[in-house]
Each structure stands twice: as structure tokens, then as C-alpha cells.
Amino acid sequence: MRPRTRQGEGTVRPEKLRACGEGVVIEPGAVILHPENVSLGDYVYVGHYAVLNGYHTGELVCGAGTWIGQHCLLHGAGGLTLGAEVGVGPGCRILTSTHADPGPGEPIMRGALELAPVSIGDGSDLGCNAVILPGVTIGRRVQVGAGAVVRVDLPDDCLAAGVPARVVGRRR
After folding, report:
1. What whole-number distance in Å separates Cα of residue 80 and Cα of residue 94?
2. Of 47, 59, 81, 155, which is least packed with CB atoms within 10 Å of its CB?
3. What is the rounded distance in angstroms from the CA atom of residue 105 to the CA atom of residue 14?
4. Mean pLDDT taken over the chain
């Protein structure tokens, strides 16, 4: 078994962030891990009990005017970029890592950590409890439905929903 290491207490101290813009609101109960790798643009909102993990290997960047709802998990190990004015609904999960299969008879957690960046374009919105998997690029002004599991890239101005998510329409 691998020895475990602590990720820190997650106490939010804006001065410890890589960057913290004007008018940022971080609600009580929010946790920011590896704040040295987290950048928040102007007027970003971070909801109660959200967890932002810059991780020790990646960077988590939120553009100006982005809104992160309550109970979200944003994991930036592989690099995570949210554009300007992105909405992240309550309970969303955005992941940038997975474990490689270590082979038959081995626990999956023994597999090497594979990192893949995620990018969410300006003006997009993720419905409540959506899950964005490693390596996905979501275009600009995309609406992702509640509970969707996004595992493939989504083009600009589309509507996506389902498990797995698929394009179900275009924004007009």
C-alpha cells in the first residue's frame, strides 16, 4: 500500500491563492486545497461547502464572473480552466485524473494516476450534479443538463444531456 499524505486543512485564505480578483466571494464551509495553484478572477462566487483542489501538479483557473454552486468538487490535478461567466450548478463534479488499470488481481488504486486537462468555455452552464470527466473540452455558451455525465468534447452553443451526455440541440 502507498503511504497517504495530507492535502492540508483547506482553510480559505485569499492571500494564499495564486491569484484572487476583485469582488470574489467565498462562502463559509468552502475548502481550497493547494491554494498556490488556484486562480480566481474578478467577481467569482464560490458556494458553501464547495471544494476547489488545485492539487500539487495542476492549476485550477476560474475566469471573471464565474459562479460555483454549493457542494461542488473541482479537481485540478490535470489542469482545469473555467472561462468567464461560467455557471457550475450545485453538486457538480469536474475531474482531471483517473487511475490506470494496474492489471488483473491488483487493486485499481495501485494504478498510476493519469492526468488530463478539462476546459469549460466562456458563458457555459453546468446543470446541478453534472459530472465532467478527465480530458473533456466544453465549448463556449454550452448548456449541460442536470445529472449529465460528460465524457466527450462538446461544441460551442449546444445543449447536452444524458448519461453519457450527448448533444440534444442547439442554442438559438
Report:
1. 8
2. 155
3. 45
4. 95
pTM above 0.85, yes or no: yes
Asked if the 21-100+109-170 domain carries CATH number 3.30.70.100, the reply is: no
pLDDT digit string, tens, across residues 52-90: 999 888 999 999 999 999 999 999 999 999 999 999 999
Contact (CB, 8 A) for 140 and 124 = yes
| Percentage with pLDDT > 70 across the chain | 95
| Residue 170: CA count within 13 A, CB half-sphere | 3
Residue closest to 62 by CA, chosen among 15, 17, 129? 17
Which pLDDT belongs to residue 7? 64
Using CA atoms, how far apart are residues 144 and 134, in angstroms rounded to an integer? 16
Between CA 61 and CA 19 the distance in angstroms is 9
Beta bridge partners of 7: none
Q: CA 147, CA 121: separation in Å to the nearest integer?
A: 19
Mean pLDDT, range 3-18, rounded to an integer: 79
Domain ranges (residues) in the chain:
21-100+109-170
Give me the DSSP letters along 79-92. Answer: -EEE-TT-EE-TT-
